[in-house]
Amino acid sequence: MNWVNVAVQGILLGGLYALFAVGLALVFGVMRLVNLAHGDLGILAAFVTLGLITHAHLGLTWAALLTIVVMFCAGYVLQRGLLNFTLGTDDTRPIVVTFGLAIIIQNTLLLAFSADEQGLEGGRITTASIHLGHQLAIGWYPLLVFIVAVAIIAGLQLFLNRTKMGRAFRATSDDREAAELMGMNNRHIYSLAMAVSLAIVAVAGIALAIRTTFDPTSGSFNLIFAFEAVIIGGIGSIWGTLVGGVILGLAQTLGAQAFGSGWAILCGDVVFLVILALRPRGFFARTVTA
Amino acid sequence: MSILEVRDVDVFYGDFQALFSISFTIEEGQTFAVIGANGAGKSTMLRTIAGLSRPRSGQILFEGEPVDHISAHKRVAMGISMVPEGRRVFPSLSVNENLQVGGYGGRKGDWNLESVYELFALLKPLAKRQAGSLSGGEQQALAIGRALMSNPRLVLLDEVSLGLAPVIIKRIYEAMVELPSRGTTILVVEQDVQHVLTVSDHVACFLEGRISLEGAPAELKSDDITAAYFGM
Amino acid sequence: MSTDGSLSAGGQAEPDARAAIPGFRVARSTRMHLYVLVVSLIIVVSLVSVPFWAQVGTTRTLITLFGLIALAQMWNLLAGFAGLISVGQQAYIGIGAYGVWLFADEFHLHPFIAVAAAGALAAIIALPIAPLLFRLRGGYFAIGTWVFAEVIRITVSNIQATGGGSGKTIVSAALLPIDTRIYGTYWVGLGVAVGSILIVYLLLRSKVGLALTAIRDNDLAAQSSGVNVFRSKLIVYVVAAFGCSAMGAVVALNLLRIQPAASFSVNWTAFAIFIVVIGGLGSIEGPILGAVLYFVLQQTLSQYGSTYFLLLGLLAVIMATKVPRGLWGLVVARWDLHLFPVRRGLVMSEPSAPPGQAAAVAKEPGPTAKPA
After folding, report:
1. Are residues C131 and C203 in contact, defined by beta-carbon separation less than 8 angstroms?
2. Residue A283, in any domain of the structure
3. A288: confidence class by pLDDT, cuts 50, 70, 90
4. Between chains, do A97 and C317 touch, taking CB under 8 Å as contact?
5. Taking the alpha carbons of C310, C315, C321, C326 in that order, is the dihedral positive or negative?
6. Do A95 and C132 touch (CB under 8 A)?
7. What is the model's pLDDT at position C23?
8. Which residues of C301-314 are buried (b: 16+ CB within 10 A; e: fewer)?
9. Does residue A286 lie in a domain region?
10. Nearest CA-CA partner of A247 in A10, A4, A1, A73
11. Is A134 exposed, middle or buried (0-12, 13-18, 19+ CB in 10 A)?
12. 3-class SS at C317?
């Protein structure tokens, strides 16, 4: 029974990883940009929420909502003002610039908040759980995060399939120049995609911060987990990130159960490498994307 | 006032000059054909009018207004629409979605989903299919329909017959004849001269980045066209 | 390095035996490069003599510089010449650090021999890893290299034999007489730095260099015209693993301590990116220039911790967006100066022919359909 418990935890943890992954996948899909600052931007959002709670004395809900709006706007400005200028040249520039951005965010947070571990107080929900039988207990909070992840992914898929702007995202993803010939301003579309990506990673960062402690350097891990979820799920697939996240979450929690908690992350990495070796296109790769 | 005026346009790719001081004028409602061999600069001319390439010198006027500093996506809103070489439909989008994307700018006019499906009846049963799975001819019809969805004043057609079966080419050219009656001016680029001469009012032959011959098809002798085409 | 009148010698090319097209000669070396060679030799010889007259502190600090030069050359070889942007070279730096401990303390090789053994170990590990990582492209390749580095770091941190999270002291090196250790490490470090420059230079002049140029211009086209893209990238990746490992081994001998958090730190990549982006991506000169500049910056500013890193990040972003060819790129743009003869240039045999004629060779294909 204990193993079932651990597996359920792993699946729910996968929801959190999917939340980190989906923004990374969206931005890559629309503009072939791999944002190396993605994890750090999530942690930045957690610190923004923390700052709003401690300094502006907002409640968690309002602080979180405000953070999501702020990150949406920041994403637009970041893309329009900086990252757009790195695209369309060679691979090096966007990687160097987003890596530089990651270093800037980490060290700004270190200066502002020190290297201390922080936490966001989520209230009673973080400790409450549903008991099914004697041994199986599902935490309300991980379940809520998983539901939020599924809702966000479903919402994003619906947005891409059913709305005019969603079609514009997909058209730009297919053929940037042809999309321009349809009257789309790709700089605007890229910036909107980054805005959506950062709004979602803000949700991920805040969800992580309520779940566990965090510090200014936590971003790199989350970038790596997000990346692993994207590749396992298949590049270009939005639902694939959920599958990838769940596989990664399962590998980590089951690995920790089997070998000890020090091996959790390594088990996730190994499963990722094995899947990369056996199934390099992931489970749900779209045929079109590069 | 002419709908499009090209004045002394020079275009470069890096150090390579693709167009040398090109000038021509297109009147409203005309079907203007640009012919020439592969690499003569025809596609570059269209890309420059659409705003994908920038002239180093010279000017392009659309309805009397200079458009040189207007980006490609804004030219669509002004009424310039292009069917790019190689069709370039959005492969992962359905036929219907491709057409919807064509109407992204929201220009009002005769063309909408219904009228495009009427013009290209072959597309109607394919509405839900992924565009990437269509045949070349179907994709070409879709690409033209998609361009019409923006209700252009001027539509630029780049090599619409390239690599297509004669029966499809015939159908596309039949559709093309209908456009001027709906107030759409056409600039068509072709390597295949035969079809284009039958539908166009005016022909310009490009040779190594320059116009080597220009005139109404009826007034041009086929020997002169051959000479202008090959540079003999 | 000098920017004197020897520049004017740029036109006097020495013939290359491989030139085949009549009317043109493929030329790489010019008389200037002879001067560069002489100046370089003088610099290297003076550097060799440093331990005999300088203070121990200076000698040890210079080892850090050598490490930075080697690191930058290897990162630039990957990113600037093969288009492989790695953010995981710390994997091989750490393998070097732990490798030198392994071979010296456990297998009782002489610590300086162990540097080469550590390099070889990294190259052997890189061989099967490369094809796996090559399945990822661009930014995803970058994160993939990082995952690999994390895998090694976590493994090493969790194993008791390697000292776990607190690491190990390299005892055999610590037991060497102090002069032997510091002088020896210095010369080995100098060797690794000079070797890293030489190997990049030789690679670029070899067939691999030609293939890399083709790959950088157009991966697919290079592949379809018979260039073995995979093999060229594999060679570069393995060489970079060897170089980074040797460099990590030298740094470990200099510090005598190895620790997973430090040896496998992603900061190594941050330094490499910073140095190469500031100095100039895709040239041999740029990383050397960048390493020296960075070294000066580090000696003066690294005490400021986070502020210093913040500054590095900002500079990297600004340079990458505003000056993508780096400082050396500015030098090349201004004076067309190339200290290393790695570029192949077509030189007219008849001096009267105008240079523009070369472009006319690219004739356009004929029409595919006949006019009526």
Report:
1. no
2. no
3. very low
4. yes
5. negative
6. no
7. 59
8. eeeeebebbbbbbe
9. no
10. A10
11. exposed
12. helix
A93: left (phi over 0), alpha (psi -120 to 50) or beta: alpha
Pairwise CB contact (< 8 Å): A103 & C321:
no
- A228 or C346: which leads in pLDDT: A228
| Residue A268's CATH number | 1.10.3470
> Residue A290: inside a domain, yes or no?
no
Instruction: Calculate what percentage of chain A has a pLDDT beyond 90.
Output: 81
For helices C267-279 and A92-113, what crossing angle results, to 10°? 130
Query: How far does the CA of residue C362 sit from the closest CA of chain B (Å)?
Result: 10
CA–CA gap between residue B174 and residue B34 (Å, rounded): 18
Domain count of the fold of chain A: 1
Q: Which of residues 205-234 of C touch A (CB under 8 A)?
A: none
> In angstroms, rounded to a whole number, what is the distance separating the alpha carbons of residues B123 and B94?
11
What subunits make at least 3 CB pairs under 8 angstroms with B?
A, C
- Between chain A and chain B, the number of residue pairs with CB atoms below 8 A apart is 70
pLDDT per residue as tens digits for the range B116-149: 999 999 999 999 999 999 999 999 999 999 999 9
Q: In terms of residue numbers, what domain contains A240? A: 2-278
- At B221, the pLDDT band (50, 70, 90 cuts) reads confident
Identify which of A101, A103, A224 has the shortest CB distance to residue C312: A103
Residue B48 near residue B12 (C-beta atoms within 8 A): no
The Cα B127–Cα A207 span in angstroms is 42
- Cβ neighbors of B63 (< 8 A, separation 6 or more) are B1, B3, B78, B79, B153
Q: Which residues contact A13 (CB under 8 A, 6 or more apart)?
A: A142, A249, A252, A253
Å from C358 to nearest chain B CA? 12
Reply yes or no on whether the pLDDT at B91 is more than 90: yes
Q: How far is C141 from chain B (nearest CA, A)?
A: 25
